[in-house]
Specification:
alpha+beta, about 15% strand, eight-stranded mixed beta sheet, single chain, two-stranded antiparallel ribbon, disordered N terminus, 2 domains
Length: about 475
């Protein structure tokens, strides 16, 4: 039996994307070990996450769960209450009863997900939880090559499998013609870990791990998810793409599960950007109608879509704007009617919008729109998303930053024609500290016109070449 278990763990560790089945008395994932009372049929999903056929009795978890440390939660739900660590933040209430790791042995029924955490030994503001891992309990083995059910809102019928993944949905642009291309193995490692989502408000950043973002912030998550979405549209072979693609689709499935339970990522500054790209890739590569419906502008499930809009008469009539925070907000005028724009909390409270380039969070959020926008364009998803303001503002934001509006060739009727750093702003170079990442910028400018013919062209003429 020992040789059998050794082979199983060898395959799980060195080939995480290889589905396999084995009998085991324990199983380990990313440093967390779950110990069973006897042998159970076990295995791994396409992305390497483990499953076990139950009901199963967990007798021990390592690292050892303690009060307020290394917690494990069964079937978590959306919200701020958590049973992982009592040092996370005062906003994410630790509920000791949720931590089933302190009440072992525990009998876990099928169609369940157990999330176990590894806490940092010292108290930190961000990244108090170092890793999350998920063990899925089933009534029978999953189909070969199955994706894991989402840990919130999971579909345990395993509707998505490796054979459903369409590589043809991805572009194959020449990576040698772009600079600052991320290292593929780094992205594979980052997305092999569970990017845990539970608290969908701004305080959710305290529950994020260092693999998601060093400071838990949505903007930093958006840079990484943007890196992944664009890298998958480069000319790597399908075999080279497979590990990252499977991991990224799995994150998209987890996001979709949360949406099926009523979740959405509110438009709240820069906290909730970054979750759109994984579901975009999953929806298109799996060609799933329900997933596609969840990425539409009309569904309004993502901050990237909720914060972008075309200026309407109602927006012009919004003045006076919210001013209690002392932040500058310039009013829209009739000249702005129909302009693609961005607003801090536009869907929830458009009174916090402002018609100035240096309106708070515009630089943060606007700088990470280019990656999901161009990924959607080259994957032929513009019509599916049906929210043109998202695409048009992503372009407008980057064009302004690049100083294109000083050239009449790029003037779109909404910008003042001044060079970058001037115009409708109260400070010079308002995007100075939050530039669009160079890889995202270069990819966008190189390929914004290389879109499938079934998609509407971007706003500027299709023959507009950018050197």
């Amino acid at each position: 039996m020992r040789s059998h278990l050794f082979l199983a763990f060898f395959l799980l560790y060195f080939f995480p994307g290889l589905p396999c089945s084995f009998s085991a008395t324990s199983i380990t994932r990313h440093g967390t070990t779950w110990v069973f009372d006897k042998e159970y049929e076990s295995g791994t999903y396409l992305n390497g996450d483990p499953w076990v056929v139950g009901p199963v009795t967990i007798t021990a978890i390592s690292p050892l769960p303690e009060t307020g440390k290394n917690g494990s939660v069964l079937n978590p739900s959306i919200g701020r209450e958590q049973g992982f660590d009592n040092r996370v933040s005062p906003y994410n209430s630790y509920i000791d009863e949720l931590n089933i790791g302190k009440a072992l042995p525990a009998l876990l029924e099928p169609s369940s997900s157990l999330i176990s955490s590894i806490s940092n030994s010292t108290e930190t503001t961000w990244g108090q939880i170092n890793t999350f891992s998920v063990l899925t309990i089933l009534s029978e083995p999953p189909p070969s090559g199955a994706f894991r059910p989402a840990y919130i809102g999971g579909d345990f019928s395993h509707p998505w499998k490796e054979q459903d993944v369409s590589y043809e949905s991805l572009a194959t642009f020449d990576k040698s013609k772009l600079s600052n291309v991320p290292i593929l193995s780094d992205l594979e490692q980052q997305f092999s870990f569970l990017w845990y989502e539970q608290d969908l408000t701004w305080t959710g950043r305290y529950l994020h791990t260092p693999y998601q973002a060093n400071n838990g912030y949505g903007k930093d998550m958006a840079i990484k998810t943007g890196d992944a979405a664009l890298s998958l549209n480069l000319n790597y072979t399908n075999e080279q793409k497979s590990t990252l693609l499977y991991n990224f689709i799995q994150y998209g499935i987890d996001i979709y599960g949360i949406i099926t339970m009523g979740g959405l990522w509110y438009d709240t500054g820069g906290h909730n950007v970054g979750r759109f790209s994984p579901l975009l890739v999953a929806a298109i590569c799996l060609d799933d109608p329900q997933m596609k419906s969840a990425i539409t502008g009309s569904a309004a499930k993502f901050s990237e879509l909720r914060q972008t809009f075309y200026v309407s008469q109602n927006d012009i009539d919004n003045a006076p704007y919210y001013s209690a925070d002392g932040r500058p907000r310039l009013a829209y005028t009739l000249d702005d009617l129909g302009k693609p724009d961005w607003g801090e909390t536009h869907t929830d409270n458009s009174k916090r919008d402002g018609n100035n380039w240096d309106s708070f969070y515009r630089d943060i959020c606007g700088s990470v729109l280019q990656a999901p926008a161009i990924a959607a364009l080259v994957m032929g998803a513009r019509e599916i998303i049906g929210h043109d303001a998202f695409f048009d503002y992503a372009q407008r934001h980057l064009y302004y930053r690049e100083g294109f509006f000083a050239n009449p060739q790029f003037y779109n009727g909404y910008d003042d024609g001044d060079s970058y750093g001037e115009g409708n702003t109260t400070k010079l170079a308002p995007f100075k500290f939050n530039e669009t990442p160079a890889f995202h910028r270069d990819f966008f400018l190189a390929h914004e016109h290389n879109v499938p013919s079934t998609s509407p062209p971007p706003s500027p003429p299709s023959d507009l070449l950018i050197d």
